[in-house]
Amino acid sequence: MTALTLSTAGAATLRADALVVGVAKGAGSKSGDLVLAPGAEAVDKAFDGKLATVLATLGASGAEGELTKLPAPDGLKVPVVIAAGLGPVPEMDGSYDAEALRRAAGSAARSLIGAKKAGFALPVGSVEDAAAIAEGALLGAYAFTAYQGGENKLAPKGAKAQGAKQPLAEVALLGTKPRDKAFKAAAERAVALVEEINRARDLINTPPNDLYPESFAAVATAAGKEHGIKVQVLDEKALVKGGYGGLLGVGQGSTHGPRLVKLAYTHPKAEKTLALVGKGITYDSGGISLKPAGHNETMKCDMSGAAAVFATVVAAARIGLRVNVTGWLALAENMPSGNATRPGDVLHMYSGKTVEVLNTDAEGRLVLADALTRASEENPDAIVDVATLTGAMVLALGNRTFGIMANDDAFRTSIHEIAEEVGEASWPMPLPADLRKGMDSPTADIANMGERMGGGLVAGLFLQEFVGEGIAWAHLDIAGPAFHEGAPYGYTPKGGTGSAVRTLVKLAERTAAGDLG
After folding, report:
1. N or C: lower Cβ tally within 10 Å for the chain?
2. What is the Cα Rg of the chain in Å?
3. What is the DSSP string of 204-219?
4. What CA–CA distance (Å, rounded) separates 120 from 2?
5. Which pTM value belongs to this model?
6. What angle do CA 283, 449, 362 make, to 5 degrees?
7. Does pLDDT of 441 surpass 70?
8. Calpha distance 428→437 (Å, rounded)
9. Would residue 318 show up in a list of annotated catalytic residues for this protein?
10. Cβ 145 vs Cβ 35: under 8 Å
């Protein structure tokens, strides 16, 4: 994990491998559209006041995501200056949007792979700005290298294996107040939050031959011991005894049996309890309803919801939030075999309801249903489930936005506002009652499939059936943003992203503060 320091050094005196400053687009400036952001003054002075002119000559425009590297002049202690684009100059109070700062810092950190230390002199007008820059830089510095740089047995004897390049080792945040309690708290929160997001990313990126329900449960158990979180793991025998037909039905086709993991973080002064439920399909082949060629390669990411829930509970414990947060990880591997659930089978769920399985690739809702019922028994103030649930949601909202459904409009609105605040793109979605009829079954209480059109909403309606009466509930379908297959951008890497963790942690903070009613 990249280290974070609140540096007392100035931009001109900092000794590091690189110094990052911000530039923005603003019509009417002396150098065309390019404007130097606050924090770049010392660097501009070292360039004899011509930094904007030099950058413009090199083609810099200040556009978001743009990076321009140039050799540092003699007046600085760093060899390289990186100008990171922030987008348009703020029109109102001069404060840059937190997400623009986050992405600029992330882009710069990604470009510094292999470096030992970099100074970030982006505009810090508040504690919130410092937090955004810290989050972006630490998220952008992420790299998954666990399976790279191992011993090469074919290399000549005595030759060293070529290790993978490591991410930026240290982020020095300039323009802050290191002795100020608010800045120190913001830095500590950023470190705890990002370390857990990156833990979620690691889990998502781990190959399915190494990450399966039992090994995921072991990771959760170890983290619980480290951070004072109570962990309970229900194995196959316990699931059979408890009647968890959804989890057992999905997992019975694999040699790796299913698990239901409960993580409970409690605070002695907590007045509210938030329950989080995560879909944890450690690999999804589709089961007997096998996925077509080209759709299996990234299905190790189908446990991203469980990874997000796990990361959130641990982050809440590390930050010390005054709220009880319970996480439920519904873990199974969905495989085809002679023992797998068949289309047409009927499962007896933990709730007592029966479900006719029309498609074994609609398995996430089955494991979530059992976990939602179990979470409801503890009567929390609210339940949020998180899942890479439907391709239909990706078709509706694209690859970068997750959908939010809920049984309470105000709760759905609150989560949407929180997601936008922390920089996670989301959109509120409805639960149309007329789509429920499509899941009527002549054999069971409900089928796991309904109308094809609006499939993401149908899945939400199915889950709603398993939420306890009177409990506020929301469903986050993160199928789009959970796993990024394209080129990295901003602070978003290729592979697992840790989607929804920032939203859930902020939700827990709001719940602790009593801001959600």
Report:
1. C
2. 24
3. HHS-TTT--HHHHHHH
4. 14
5. 0.96
6. 0
7. yes
8. 22
9. no
10. no
Give the Å distances, CA to CA, from 344 to 20, 288, 354, 369, 491: 59, 11, 12, 18, 44
- Sequence-ordered list of residues with C-beta below 8 angstroms from that of 441, at least 6 positions apart, any chain: 355, 356, 447
Give the residues across from 356 on adjacent strands: 346, 447
Q: CA-CA distance, 164 to 247, in Å (whole number)?
A: 38
Token pair recorded at residue 396: 């509706």
Per annotation, catalytic residue among 45, 77, 184, 291: 291
Closest CA to 57 of 68, 65, 72, 66: 68
Q: Which two structure tokens, joined as six digits, stand for 63?
A: 């556009």
CA distance 505 to 503: 6
> Quick one: pLDDT band at residue 277, thresholds 50, 70, 90?
very high
Work out the mean pLDDT of the chain and round it to a whole number: 95
**Residue 229 has which token pair?**
């979180």
**Cα 510–chain centre separation:** 18
**Catalytic one of 365, 436, 506, 510:** 365
Residue 294: predicted pLDDT? 87
Select from 439, 441, 483, 443 the least CA-distant residue to 463: 439
Query: Does residue 300 have an active-site annotation?
Result: no
